[in-house]
């Protein structure tokens, strides 16, 4: 099916939905479903209409210019204006075509979801834990700049300002769509504060970004869970409180284990742990489906595999390099402050869109 045929198919469905909804003859359940489909199609239909209008205007202008060419009495100023307008339109039409093509790409159903962020220290001992804490703060700042809510859920500190692991719930508009390419191994190269010789060390932290799953996305059977309660402990084993409020949930079918001890209430810790568990199970389901879909896919922005090295932060040279798209920014301070992270995110999204458009070919 050609692109124009796809456009016509979308417009026909859009018109059909508009007429059906205007007639008001649908059942209440169907009305909600059709209204959502109509709302989703509206920006696509508007983009197609804008493209068709641009093409029609360009064709009219081309005809007018052609006619003026053979007319000695044609107004030179009018001809110049028509040529200028034609030039502007011919530059704009490919942009409109790309906009429509992108809008027709299959949507990731998780893009509009909130996200669970998990950051873990990898190889590198104390330096890796310090870097994990800095990454966690980078995402906290980035969330603040985008107006998202960042709630730290569980943080396991090392006692010197580092994090062995930390989990956060990030809520807001399009959170997962912008953060999903952050999953993987983040490598840091720098001279550790504890290194007397001034040698550059390489260490790493692992980031996982999971779409927050609702109960309707993943049903968890109580009989598949083993729930243990224990006393919360802080860094160095210091007692946080004297009640058995910390919760550890083991999902028996998969062996996944989630612990939560930030809250003083056992009930709240259990609810938070279940939220993380549900999101991990949902992520596993998505990964399994993606593996099938990507089996023959040549171009993609990483696999989201947690073992895949995706980015290097080189502090002595002040650069951040994303290895998936070979993009290097010499503004490490702004990236770590969350301010320049959008430059990386936008480039990753653009690369993903380009790869998927190539597949549509």
Automatic annotation (TrEMBL):
Q: Coiled coil: which residue ranges?
A: 44-99
One GO cellular component this record assigns the protein to is:
cytosol
Organism domain of life:
Bacteria
Q: Where in the cell is it found?
A: Cytoplasm
Give a short account of its post-translational modification. Answer: Methylated by PrmC. Methylation increases the termination efficiency of RF1.
Carrying N5-methylglutamine, the residues are 238
Q: Where is the Prokaryotic-type class I peptide chain release factors domain?
A: 231-247
Check the record and name the Gene3D superfamilies matching this protein: 3.30.160.20, 3.30.70.1660, 6.10.140.1950
Range of residues in the leader sequence: none
Q: Do the record's keywords include Coiled coil?
A: yes
User: Which keywords describe this protein according to UniProt?
Assistant: Coiled coil, Cytoplasm, Methylation, Protein biosynthesis
Major site of localization recorded for this protein: cytoplasm
Gene Ontology MF terms? translation release factor activity, codon specific
**InterPro entries (alphabetical):** PCRF (IPR005139), Pep_chain_release_fac_I (IPR000352), Pep_chain_release_fac_I_sf (IPR045853), Prokaryotic/Mito_RF (IPR050057), RF-1 (IPR004373)
> Record's family?
Belongs to the prokaryotic/mitochondrial release factor family.
Function of the molecule? Peptide chain release factor 1 directs the termination of translation in response to the peptide chain termination codons UAG and UAA.
Q: Protein name, please?
A: Peptide chain release factor 1
Gene that this polypeptide is encoded by: prfA
């Amino acid at each position: 099916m050609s692109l124009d045929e796809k456009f016509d198919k979308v417009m026909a469905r859009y018109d059909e939905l508009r007429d059906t909804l205007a007639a008001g003859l649908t059942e209440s359940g169907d009305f909600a479903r059709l209204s959502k489909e109509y709302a989703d199609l509206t920006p696509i239909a508007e983009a197609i209409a804008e493209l068709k209008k641009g093409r029609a205007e360009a064709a009219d202008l081309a005809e007018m210019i052609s006619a003026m060419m053979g007319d000695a009495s044609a107004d030179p100023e009018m001809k110049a204006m028509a040529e200028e307008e034609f030039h502007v339109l011919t530059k704009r039409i490919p942009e409109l075509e790309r906009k429509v093509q992108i809008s027709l790409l299959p949507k990731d159903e998780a893009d509009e979801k909130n996200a669970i962020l998990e950051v873990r220290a990898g190889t590198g001992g104390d330096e890796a834990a310090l870097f994990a804490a800095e990454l966690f703060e980078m995402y906290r700042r980035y969330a603040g700049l985008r107006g998202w809510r960042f709630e730290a859920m569980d943080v396991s500190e090392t006692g010197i300002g580092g994090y062995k692991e930390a989990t956060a719930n990030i809520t807001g508009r399009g959170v997962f769509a912008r953060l999903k390419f952050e999953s993987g191994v983040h490598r840091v190269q720098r001279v550790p504060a504890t290194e007397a010789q001034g040698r550059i060390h390489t260490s790493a932290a692992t980031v996982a970004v999971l779409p927050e799953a609702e109960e309707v996305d993943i049903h968890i059977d109580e009989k598949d869970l083993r729930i243990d309660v224990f006393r919360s402990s802080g860094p160095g084993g210091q007692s946080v409180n004297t009640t058995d409020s910390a919760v550890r949930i083991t999902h028996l079918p998969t062996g996944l284990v989630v612990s939560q001890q930030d809250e003083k209430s056992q009930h709240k810790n259990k609810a938070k742990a279940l939220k993380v568990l549900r999101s991990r199970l949902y992520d596993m389901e998505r990964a399994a489906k993606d593996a099938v879909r990507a089996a023959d896919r040549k171009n993609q922005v990483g696999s989201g595999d947690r073992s895949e090295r995706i980015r290097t932060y080189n502090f002595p040279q002040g650069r951040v390099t994303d290895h998936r798209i070979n993009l290097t920014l010499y503004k490490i301070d702004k990236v770590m402050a969350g301010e320049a992270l959008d430059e990386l995110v936008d480039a990753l999204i653009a690369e993903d869109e380009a790869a998927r458009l190539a597949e549509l070919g």
